[in-house]
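Two proteins, back to back. First:
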Amino acid sequence: MGFMRWLLRRLAGPGREVHVVRRVEMRCPHADECAEIALLMGPTGRPSMVLRCNRRPEAPPTCDQLCRMRAEAVTTVPRSLLLVPSGDERLV
């Protein structure tokens, strides 16, 4: 993932930060039902925030975001992986 960040940073231009958004389908710890979430990944590859959840339509979800701390959020194969330059929130 380091090479992809470097490549996108180079394409985005100087001074632009790159964000990695990972969309995963996993079991919601509150509803115990399947939910699709979009995770904003930190610079070390750890989820830092839940951006979107189909169980909680408000963005970002107002729940305690417990799903980002579950191993299932990181070990599950992502449905999509987005590399987004900063300032492009509309793509998430």
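And the second protein:
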Amino acid sequence: MTKPNTTGLIEKLNSFFILLSVFFLPTYIFRFNISAYPSNLQEVLIFVSSLIFLVKIIGERKVYSTIKNLRKHWIISTFIILSTISILTTDIIQQTYFLRHLKFIFFASVLALIFLESFTEEHTQKKAINIMGLGAVATGVFSLIYNILGYGVTQDLRLSGPFESAVILSYYLTPFFIYFSIEFFENIKKKHNLLLAIILGLLIILTRSMGSIVGAFLVIVIYLLKKSSLSILKNKISKTALIIATILILFSAIYVKIVPALTSKNTSLGEREQIWKTSAYLLKEPTTVIWGLGLGQFEEYYRTESVKVLGQAPLDFNNPHPHNIFFLFIFEYGLLGLFFIIACMYRTIKLINNSFDISELKIVVAFMLLYFFLHGMIDSPFFKNDMTFLMILFLEIALKRKGKK
């Protein structure tokens, strides 16, 4: 058994490197090779965190109990089981995409596991999520400076920073905008939460991602109508104002996204129509419905099948995901994957709707998940270095079987 002083040091190092990993979650953009292995800074941080965690549990003689706890972390276990079934039942036609998705799931599951095993109390988990949120603010500000300096500037001048697209950035920022907003509404004396929410809100607006803007607004409105303890929101006038604001936001989204699609197919909505049409065609194959296409295989199938389905070249051949969360999970994992994500949605909505005696953290995280599900109807980049971890972690925290006050 390790000495008390050594144990305390390892404990502190373990917490520090986990928090470092989650604060710098988007550091996968810093890519390099370790010999012949393609890696990135995020993977290195997770690897170091894992080594320290391993030393910690060996010193505490908790290796076996940690492995047993995988049964308690049923979201992580389910992703592992579904991925194993997918590997055994599907043909891999694009090895690179397959390995990339396998890495996403592996590193996300490892980080989520050591996070949950290290921060077992809700107050420590909440502190860690606060740090994750500060990391999101730092990432957004860095992205803004990056674009202002002339790097990675898009033709439509949307805030995207060093990321693949503005949507990828907004998808990462929005859950934490919701988090800090709700934290402020729950305790309006903590003005720093309002400041952080405003910063993130402005950054999200600069991405001009209507999915993020509308999704975040709807989640906040649902929260205010159902959960907020603010007395001003308990009268009919305030609720009516919120409903009117919601209608205006929705009409704005229709004007910006849907109306242009009626006159031109060369729009983001037109591209999604092509993707969904091809996806529906792929599901005509019974084996695809049952087992899926395989981990990360959608992009290759879309590239080879879209011309035949559409009768012309698509607007973009490179689409790593089908822009719909239901399509995504059935293509990755088949019917089992579809049932899994539907069950997660059902339990999340049930949690929000029946939140009596449920801990504050679970409720806040449930609203963050609600955003994922809403935006997931039109964008589904959940199998990425950062988003896979966030989805697994949030599902674990919100849908944990225990957690009542």
